[in-house]
Write a structure and sequence with these properties.
homodimer; 2 helices
């Protein structure tokens, strides 16, 4: 769980990093940036900031923003609705990211990309400058993601304000 | 048909415009930018520059670059291989573009986007500053595109050098 203040701060960081990468957002998009701590309460170490441009029942496009050293924990995208599960292409825009796919290390610098097959275990971690990564994929169903660490809760929960 | 010089010049223009939008390309990507004159030989008026990031059998992502006032002529993406045809989302990054979808005018400024249903007639034209437009879509099969103008040839042809 994260606090509203943590969520706002991470949204602000992500919007600033996207802007520095030349990406123009509407105010509504900046306010809708998802901040995921995976239920572990250690956002700056294990977490992800996500802007979803579009997610139809056929394809999806997102921007992922990571703090320096921030890590998205190992998971896979299983088959659903008769499809083989989400296939996704990561393209590094700014900073750097180290992607691990089925045990292989794939370092990505700006302008480099890699396509992760469906239903394949992967995790990734930003380098010292953080990272902005575009994700192009088939339809996204984050609620179906299967994480290796059983403590993980994918849907972000934000603590309610004390009243 | 375009000449090799026209092709090189348009590739250089597109690479420069993508760079100005903050998009980092590899040298191989810059050299692979597609220059389409639709067989009409009036590239600056009717044409398109295209960088394909990825095109799997499930999804596709491209950048489209247009010269000021350049127009991509009316076409649709028909059903194929048991799919309803290509569905695509245009997101304006720089400049401006006027999109026409089934007779409706949809002007797009940076940060604005629109999703075009499959098998639906559409065309678009850049504003006075040209445009950089991201395209997110289901799988792309440009060779199947159906253009309203029967003179159009989708696959670019480049004149061979005189020897």
């Amino acid at each position: 769980m994260i606090t509203e203040a943590e969520q706002r701060e991470a949204q602000g960081y992500a919007a600033e990093r996207l802007g520095a990468a030349g990406i123009v957002l509407t105010d509504e998009e900046a306010a809708a940036i998802e901040v995921a701590d995976f239920g572990l309460g250690r956002l700056r170490e294990i977490g992800l900031q996500i802007l979803v441009y579009v997610n139809t029942d056929r394809y999806c496009a997102k921007e992922l923003v990571l703090y320096p050293g921030q890590l998205c924990p190992e998971h896979r995208h299983p088959p659903f609705d008769g499809t083989p599960g989400k296939e996704e292409t990561f393209r590094c825009r700014r900073g750097s990211v180290e992607l691990w796919v089925a045990g292989d290390r794939i370092p990505l610098e700006p302008g480099e990309q890699f396509t992760i097959p469906s239903d394949t275990l992967h995790w990734f971690q930003a380098g010292d400058e953080g990272a902005v990564v575009s994700e192009f994929s088939s339809a996204s169903r984050d609620d179906l993601d299967i994480f290796t660490d059983p403590r993980i809760v994918r849907a972000p929960r934000v603590a309610e304000n004390p009243t």
